[in-house]
Amino acid sequence: MPKTADIVIIGGGGVGTATAYYLAKSGRKNVVVLEKNTVCSGSTGRCGAGIRAQWGLELNCRMALACLDTFEHLDEELGLPTGLNQGGYLLVAYKEKEWAQFQKNVELQHSLGIMSEAFTDVKRAQEICPGVAVDDAIGFTFYQRDGHADPFLTTFAFQEAAKRYGATFCKFTEVVGLKATKGGMLVETNRGNIDCKDVINCAGSWAQDVAALAGVKLPNWAERHQIIITEPVDPGVCPPMLMSFSGNYYIQQRPHGSIIAGESPSSDIRLGYTSNVNSIASIARTVLKLLPRAKNIRVVRQWAGHYDMTPDSAPILGETDVKHFWHATGFSGHGFMLAPVAGQIMTALLNGDKPPFDPTIMDYKRFERGEKIVEPNVV
Ligand SMILES: Cc1cc2nc3c(=O)[nH]c(=O)nc-3n(C[C@H](O)[C@H](O)[C@H](O)COP(=O)(O)OP(=O)(O)OC[C@H]3O[C@@H](n4cnc5c(N)ncnc54)[C@H](O)[C@@H]3O)c2cc1C
C-alpha cells in the first residue's frame, strides 16, 4: 500500500482502469487505483458489454464512434485480447414514434460518418439475424461496426497495460474517508491513508457515497438490472446485438454459443445483487419469442448488476467544488462502451490539456441549473 500518490482513482471497473491506463500512458507517475473488492467486480463484470455508435444525440454519436475506433485497435494497443465481436447492433422499433426517431437518428449518424441502415423489410432483418421473429416490428436500424466485447478481458487488458506504464492497483482496499489538504487530498482506506494531489471518483453505483465522503452531493442512484445466460446453441443464432427500447430487450450470443439476454426493470431502485425468478421467466420468454431457434435450451445462470443512474441517464465528468476531487461516474446503461473516451477525457482534464470532447455539458451541477442531456436512444 503506497503512502503517497500523484493521482488516486477510486474504483477498478471499466472506467477506473481505462482512466488509469490513459493517465499512466500520458506520463503521469504514481497513479494508484483503489478497489474495495476485485477489479471488474462491479457493474462492468455484470454488464452486456455492448458497444454501439447508433445514438440520437450528436455528442453521444461522436463519443461512441471514438470508442469504436479505439476498441478496433485495443487488442494491439494493450497487448491483450478484449473479445471484440463486431456483429453489429440490430435495433428494432415497434412503435411509430420510435421508428420516426430512428430515421432521424440515422440521418444524424450519416452526417457524422456512421453509415447505419434504416429499413422496414423483415427479410433484411432475418439476413442479419437468421430466423429472428420480428413480424410485429415496424422498422429496424443496423450498423455493422457495432458489437460487443468481453468486459473481463477488456478491464484486465486495461489494468495490465496501465501496470506496464507504472500504475499500481490495490484490491480489497476500501476508501472510507476523503479530506482536502493543502494542495491535494488525503484518502483514508481500510488499509491505511494515502496523501495525493488528485482523486478521481470512478466508484460506479457507489459514486454517491464516495462523493459524500468529501461533502459533495451527487444526484446518482443505483438501479438493479437482471440478466441471464443460456447453455450454448449453434453459433449464428444471434450474430448481432439484438435490441429494442420499446420491446425492452437486448440479446447477444457469445463466441462459444451461449445467449446473454437482459431487460430493464420497470422500477428497481436499489443496491443489491439479489436475483428473482420472475425476471428469468420474463427474459427467457422474450428470447424464445424472438429467436425460435433457441427453443429447448436451458438458462444456466442469472445475475444482477447496477446501472449507475443520473436524472438524464448521461455521465457526470469533471472537477467538483472540492478542488482536486474529480468525477467520472453516472454512466447508466452505457459505461462499458464509453470507458475509453471517459479515460481519455479525464486524462486530458487532469493534465490541463484540451479534452477530445468538451465535457462542460457533463458537469455535475447541470441538474441544479435545470439542464439535461437529452438522448432519445437510451435504455
Ligand atoms: C445488466 C447490465 C447490462 C449492461 N449492459 C451494458 C452494455 O451493453 N453496454 C455498456 O456500455 N454498458 C452496459 N451496462 C452499464 C455498464 O456496466 C456500466 O455503465 C459500467 O460498467 C460502469 O463502469 P464503472 O467503472 O463506472 O463502474 P463499476 O464497474 O461498477 O466499477 C466501480 C468500482 O468501484 C468500486 N468501489 C465502490 N466504492 C468503493 C470504495 N469506497 N472504495 C474502493 N472501491 C470502491 C466497486 O467495487 C466497483 O468495482 C450494463 C450494466 C448492467 C448492470
Automatic annotation (TrEMBL):
Keywords: Oxidoreductase
Superkingdom assignment: Bacteria
Any one Gene Ontology cellular component term annotated for this protein: cytoplasm
A Pfam cross-reference name: DAO
UniProt organism field: Synergistes jonesii
SUPFAM superfamilies per UniProt: FAD-linked reductases, C-terminal domain, FAD/NAD(P)-binding domain
Any one GO MF annotation of this record: oxidoreductase activity
Protein name: FAD-dependent oxidoreductase
Signal peptide: none
Domain FAD dependent oxidoreductase: 6-349
UniProt-listed Gene3D superfamilies: D-Amino Acid Oxidase, subunit A, domain 2, FAD/NAD(P)-binding domain
